[in-house]
Automatic annotation (TrEMBL):
It comes from the Bacteria. This is Uncharacterized protein. InterPro entries: tRNA_endonuc-like_dom_sf. Gene3D superfamilies: 3.40.1350.10. It comes from Stenomitos frigidus AS-A4.
Length: 405
């Protein structure tokens, strides 16, 4: 339940993925190639009033979100015209601008809002360019296509419009109001409209939020050609990945099968991608930042994006984790190899410089190579207890130095 609509706005401003999770074809849990979506800010002033939340994605699609709790009487009918008005406002405010002037005017509108995420247009584009869907692609070409599509989409009314409803302390769900709103939208909406209109419910329990679609007037939104080609490349990549795994020796395939069966029993989902398999918590649907990949005649588990300032590596070598793996070397950037001698007997460790909130440190990857003698239950235990939950704090002192203390 939400105390007020400002609380709901702030939640989806900080966690844009909650909006995506309510739309099946772009839910990142099920679609690893979902384009990156960025929150541009809250309460962006338009002619008919401030839009609650505004987002943009890698395809240059603008998403407008109007937040309402079920205690708000506007859900019955006014929220519909309100949301459509905002899209029309943005279109009309920019219709007479082109090229550089369009971008300047667009961002002058954004920066007049509250809680602006990216004060400069270039910083927003730079953040979008980090989308993994653009990995290995010519980002200069993408930027040019993005600018063209952003202008085209807004001028032609190509939007994603979300009416986001949530329970309040006085009203968990307003059946009559929602039914009236659905009937109104069904009667009014035209198949010729170029926007995707979604009525969505968002609620949480114990800090875990879930969005669900209530009603939708679907309109397919265009993709930038470079990204569309990239998605087709992902499909081909998954086919190639399956072929690589099928060529593993029989003992390795048998061990992998036991590992996959054990993952399901442990409440861990396996999702295919072009590299291998990514692991996700079955309950929370969140990534564990763990993948399963192949290397010549074996397979290995890779835990990446580790930022930890405790004795992680020393703990991994403790007696309660018994696992037999292929002996490999270990190293890390900016640290002595001697610091990893104990861990190197079992694990392969990479480190690369990283920075969070201005604090320099090292972000690590741990590679666990397997063999026919690998203790699968111990490996599952390691993934869930040692590598699943990590602190995000960084200290100026490298992690590897702490591990030797």
């Amino acid at each position: 339940m939400f105390v007020n609509e400002a609380e709901l706005q702030q939640l989806v401003h900080e966690q844009p993925e909650l909006i995506l999770s309510g739309i099946p074809e772009i839910n990142p849990v099920y679609c690893s190639d979902t384009p990156k979506i960025l929150s541009l800010g809250r309460e962006i002033p338009l002619r008919s009033g401030p839009i609650d939340n505004l987002y943009v994605d890698t395809n240059g699609i603008i998403t407008l979100v109007e937040c309402k709790t079920y205690s708000n009487s506007g859900i019955k009918r006014s929220v519909y015209s309100q949301a459509i008005n905002y899209a029309s406002d943005l279109q009309n405010m920019l219709i007479h601008y082109s090229g550089t002037e369009f971008i300047e005017q667009f961002y002058s509108i954004i920066t007049e809002g509250n809680f602006v995420t990216y004060p400069q247009f270039d910083s927003m584009v730079a953040q979008l360019s980090q989308d993994c869907i653009l990995e290995g692609k010519n980002k200069k070409d993408w930027k040019q296509q993005f600018l063209q599509r952003l202008e085209f989409n807004i001028k032609n009314g190509v939007f994603r419009i979300v009416i986001l409803c949530a329970p309040s302390k006085t009203n968990l769900f307003s059946y009559a109001a929602v039914r009236n709103l659905m009937q109104l939208m069904t009667f009014s909406e035209s198949g010729n409209s170029k926007y995707d209109l979604i009525l969505m419910d968002l609620r949480g329990e114990a800090g875990a939020y879930q969005a669900q679609m209530i009603w939708r007037r679907y309109c397919p939104l265009p993709q930038i050609p470079l990204i569309a080609n990239s998605l087709r490349a992902v499909e081909r990549g998954i086919e190639a990945m399956r072929k690589r795994f099928s060529m593993l020796p029989s003992p390795a395939q048998a061990t992998l099968k036991r590992f996959q069966d054990s993952l399901r029993e442990a409440g861990i989902d396996v999702v295919e991608n072009s590299i291998g398999y990514s692991l996700r918590d079955a309950d929370t649907r969140k990534s564990m930042f763990i993948s399963v990949e192949t290397d010549q005649d074996t397979w290995f588990v890779r835990r990446h994006q580790i930022r930890n300032d405790d004795s992680l590596f020393a703990n991994m070598g403790s007696d309660d984790v018994k696992i037999t793996v292929t002996a490999v070397k270990a190293w890390a950037a900016g640290a002595t190899r001697d610091a990893l001698e104990r861990v190197a007997e079992r694990y392969k460790v990479f480190g690369k410089p990283s920075e969070i909130n201005g604090v320099r440190g090292v972000m690590y990857e741990i590679w666990i190579y397997t063999s026919s003698e690998t203790d699968i239950p111990a490996l599952i235990h390691l993934l869930k207890s040692r590598l699943r939950y990590q602190t995000v704090a960084l200290s100026p002192q490298p992690v590897l130095e702490l591990a030797t203390q």
